[in-house]
Amino acid sequence: MSIADIRRSYHKAVFADILRVSRPRIEGGYPNFADGSSVLSVQYAWGIVERIALPALQGQIPGQTAGSLFEKTTRDYVEASFSKLQHIRPGAWEHSCLGTAISNFVQYEHLSEIEAMLADNRALKAAFGGNYIVSPDIVIGRAPIEDAELNQDGILDKSGDTYARHTPVRASNQTNRRHLLHGVISCKWTLRNDRAQNTKTEVLNLIRNRKGHLPHIVAVTAEPLPSRLAALALGTGDLDCVYHFALNELLDAVGDANHLDAIDLLEMMVEGKRLRDISDLPFDLAA
Questions:
Q1: How many Å apart are CA 208 and CA 206, to the nearest integer?
Q2: How far apart are alpha carbons 136 and 217 in whole angstroms?
Q3: Is residue 163, in this structure, part of any structural domain at all?
């Protein structure tokens, strides 16, 4: 199955389970990932829906429910597409969107001890704050590797009992056998200023509080307004990149509308390597 096929299946799941229109376009309706108070948001969202060309069901889904379903659907897409790249990124991978705390992973396991200490000492909590342990929307973990697999080419021979005794990649070095956090995905069905800021706050937490390598940190969204995408995508030092669930269709919709400012903004984010299509995500995770 090609990435085009997996992407199409992803869109089918989104249209079946998450995307709804209030009423037909000719009657003034709009898709539920558009801001109904914004003419441009509605126009671009309809442009995406019409280009994907799948049946859009009429009705309503509560925003929180849509967000949770978007997380699950995106998790399933990432797992299906990433699994096709085992030949370049082999490993025992686990994909979860059940609110898994980062303290369950090697790079952040120390945070549970910090939180426990702060909970028992009000003075320390006042000085250092809290909320060290976040639970990202989607996490991708890799299981530590047994010595028998690591030693296929003899890298542990002779020196195996003396050297490489601290790396968590070796399962034999870990008491608790925690996974290594490989990727963190923030899913936002739509974007508002507060949601973009919440995502950036989580990212800073991940960057500052790790012990070990930084996982891939990305965001996936269906937001149709380029200006709102820019609020999350522009800048460096936090998110690796923002991925749109239908970037090709969004580019076409904005291009056909001939809104030059929006076109320029999208091109700047794409050319600046801050915005990519969902089809790019599994390949970037395998890098």
A1: 6
A2: 10
A3: no
At residue 138, the 3 state secondary structure works out as strand
How large is the average pLDDT for residues 259-279? 97
Lowest mean pLDDT across 9-13, 182-186, 234-238, 258-262: 234-238
Q: What is the tally of structural domains in the chain?
A: 1
174-189 burial, b if ≥16 CB within 10 A, otherwise e?
beeebbbbbbbbbbbb
Asked whether 287 and 8 are in contact (CB, 8 A), the reply is no
For 113-129, the pLDDT digits (tens) are 776 666 666 665 555 55
- What are the residues whose beta carbons fall under 8 Å from the beta carbon of 25, sequence distance 6 or more? 46
Task: Write the single-letter amino acid at 161.
Answer: D
Check residue 92 and report its DSSP letter.
-
Q: What is the CA radius of gyration of the chain?
A: 21
Which domain range does residue 98 map to?
63-143+179-285
Dist. CA 120–CA 70, nearest whole Å? 37
